[in-house]
Amino acid sequence: MDTQAPDPEMDMDSQASPAAQGRFSTFRALQTVIGVALLVATLFTLWTPANLFANNLSQKMSLALLTNQTEVPSQVTPTAPLNLHVGIVSGHWGNDSGAVCSDGLTEASVNLTIATLVKQDLINAGYQVDLLQEFDERLKGYHGLVLVSIHNDSCEYINDEATGFKVAAALSNTVPETAQRLTACMIDRYQKATGLHFHYNSITPDMTNYHAFNEINPLTPAAVIETGFLNLDRQILTQHPDVVAKGVSQGILCFLRNETVAPTATPSPQQ
Questions:
Q1: Which residues have a Cβ under 8 Å from the Cβ of 220 and sit 6 or more positions away?
Q2: Parallel, antiparallel or unpaired: strands 166-169 and 222-229
Q3: Are the C-beta atoms of 109 and 49 separated by less than 8 Å?
Q4: 36-67, pLDDT tens digit by residue?
Q5: φ/ψ of residue 18, rounded to 5
Q6: 149: which strand partners?
Q7: In whole angstroms, what is the distance from residue 150 CA to residue 134 CA?
């Protein structure tokens, strides 16, 4: 009588002991749970405020659902800030000359030189910068990380105290603490860079109620700085505009980078 030889291709599962089969079933169940958990984590990562309004959210979710559940999802790159823009207003540019000195030097030209250097400093630091005219149409609803307007004071000799710089933040800002911090950063860093002192007792309502403050998005922190007096501070303003610009840009970067700075009291504007 013929005897049938054992089949070498016999299913290994049928030969396994009950204990081994139990361990195998547990491993498969654990593998499934891990795969589902990874998929949920992937979808949770996609469900961020930035992606919630993105046009390709549905595409990303569909791709995630089609991915094999047992595969480890690729690392998701953090979403970059949507708005890295900084606004720099060059005072009087495109509108009028501002203060005019006896030799023809204009405030507008000094402001533009400094503002252009500030723009380059901030670009070098990795920011996108909008160089704006005094009444630039882009100021309407402008939404950026910060906006700073650059001006200078009179060419006329007033007295020996008419030297130094002034800084005023937007009083209408919806977050007063933010405005105070921007002011503190601007004052501290500008004073250290230039050696000029803070001329706090001559800040006027024209500065605290600067027109652009009422035009930009109320969530945009804003300040105006008069970098010096065109009479007694003329040398540093015209011969060392790079130093002046460095003081302005370092004040802005102090604010944007949340650097340590001592609080500065904001004086009441002089009438």
A1: 87, 142, 143, 144, 145, 146, 147
A2: antiparallel
A3: no
A4: 555 545 444 444 444 433 444 444 434 343 33
A5: -55, -40
A6: 89, 224
A7: 10
Show me where the domains of the chain are located.
Answer: 16-66, 85-256
Look at 19 and 54; give whichever has higher pLDDT: 19
85-256 fold? Aminopeptidase (3.40.630)
Distance, in Å, from the CA atom of 209 to the CA atom of 172, rounded to the nearest integer, reads 8
Strand partners, 88: 131, 148
One-letter amino acid of 51: N
- 201 is written with which tokens? 């007792």
pTM of the model: 0.68
Q: Is the dihedral of CA 245, 247, 252, 257 positive or negative?
A: positive
pLDDT digits (tens, 9 = 90+) for 158-193: 999 999 999 999 876 667 889 899 999 999 999 999
Structure tokens at 157: 């000799």
